[in-house]
Design a protein that fits this description.
Length: 422
């Protein structure tokens, strides 16, 4: 889940992980001898679009009828973050803030049958041009829209595809394609085969196709959660609810954004006041996904007052928990976020969903309460000297931020800045 504890809140920080040396775009790759139905020397027909309005109708829209992301041979398959519903919202919020140029890639065979579609963006940062997926902390999975095109992907096939994509992309100095899963459903993600760096974190989810007793056994202290529910019941009328109307959805969104901003202030980190595109994204996304009936906002309430809310999205039987917020100032001892997660699991299980996906981030509570780990990896590319300098600078900053000096200084910095803004 792109919980705000793991969302990067800096336009100047793409949240890159530099664990292994980056391969440049012209680095030789070891070729593997794997039989395939189509020659690895295939030449593709590749087009690059700079606005969502111009892409083909083959690009998917967010839908409750989308295929499963776990086990499915359906083609195409994709995560909700590669739909035009998401991309239009990103185009209207993050693209202007980043001064980003969208590069929406459609790769087809010469007979026009689709192979993969890729949502990229190029934007300036610290005198370098950066290539990334359309993300900036609001996409838990970055991958192509995958089609079963008759290719049995291996590293050589993937390198051939990547080199042809590079030829049509605008110039860039540094690229990091992060949060890449190995596959979607049963379709292989070819870019995963080229990954050369570890991801900052993996994704975590709950499988809902098992019995409720088995699901509870994968949770940490379910008895304690049920005890907190009883205590809430003693205080009044507690309820778990799903927002049904646009008015109720907007009300709960405002509650979440307010509580998140309060946590940012209390923990002395930058928030919506410094980066308003974060709030703009969620306001616009609420309306966009409302229109496709794929928005799912749940709440734990006591006597009508929200204690915790989860902003989520639905793609077929797959539920994405994107943002969770709780009123911890008044209700921390009742663990309202944990209680909401427990009730939401029960609800989604009853409704026939196959997965509650909390997305990217290795926060302790997710690791402890999820039974599925989805490994993610990155591609890092530095084709220019400017890009290499950007990489070295990122490594230095990453090291600095890990020091006790920085940990002590950072809260003071934001405390002073907020005081000056008053």
């Amino acid at each position: 889940m792109a919980l705000f504890s793991s969302i990067q809140l800096s336009r100047q920080d793409t949240g890159l992980s530099f664990i292994e040396p980056a391969l440049t775009s012209d680095s030789p790759l070891r070729k593997t001898q794997t039989d395939s139905r189509i020659s690895c020397t295939v030449n593709y027909d590749i087009r690059c679009f700079h606005t969502v309005a111009d892409v083909s109708s083959d690009w998917p829209v967010a839908s409750k009828d989308a295929p499963s992301k776990l086990e499915s041979d359906t083609t195409p398959n994709y995560h909700i973050f590669q739909t035009t519903t998401f991309l239009k919202t990103w185009e209207n919020t993050y693209a202007p803030a980043l001064k980003a140029e969208l590069c929406l890639i459609e790769v087809r065979m010469k007979n026009s049958s689709p192979v993969v579609f890729l949502p990229f963006a190029v934007f300036p940062c610290k005198r370098a041009r950066i290539l990334s997926f359309t993300d900036q902390g609001v996409a838990d999975y970055n991958a192509p829209v995958l089609f079963d095109c008759g290719i049995e992907w291996n590293r050589t096939q993937a390198e051939n595809l990547w080199q042809q994509i590079l030829a049509i992309l605008p110039a860039f100095d540094f690229a990091e394609l992060s949060n890449m899963p190995e596959k979607i459903g049963n379709l292989i993600n070819p870019l995963f085969l080229l990954a050369n760096t570890e991801n900052q974190a993996n994704s975590h989810a709950n499988i809902l196709t098992r019995s409720w007793d088995e699901i509870q056994q994968s949770l940490v202290r379910p008895k304690a959660i049920r005890r907190k529910l009883r205590h809430l019941h003693e205080l009044g009328n507690y309820e778990f609810s799903i927002a049904e109307t646009p008015q109720e959805q907007q009300h709960l969104l405002e509650f979440m954004l307010h509580e998140k901003q309060q946590r940012f202030i209390e923990t002395h980190v930058p928030g919506f006041d410094q980066y308003p595109e974060k709030a703009h994204y969620f306001n616009d996304a609420t309306k966009a996904f409302q229109a496709t009936d794929t928005l799912h906002i749940s709440a734990l309430k006591l006597n009508g007052e929200p204690l915790a809310c989860m902003w989520g999205l639905i793609s077929g039987p797959h539920y994405y928990g994107i943002m969770i917020a709780s009123n911890l100032k008044k209700w921390a001892k009742y663990s309202p976020g944990h209680v909401l997660h427990y009730l939401l699991l029960q609800h989604l299980k009853d409704e026939g969903y196959d997965c509650l996906d909390l997305g990217v981030g290795d926060e302790e509570w997710k690791v402890q309460n999820c039974d599925l780990v989805i490994p993610l990896r990155c591609i890092t590319v530095t084709p220019t000297m400017r890009g290499k300098l950007y990489l070295y600078q990122k490594i230095a900053i990453t090291y600095l931020r890990s020091t006790s000096f920085w940990q002590a200084l950072r809260p003071l910095k934001w405390r002073v800045l907020r005081t000056l803004q008053r």
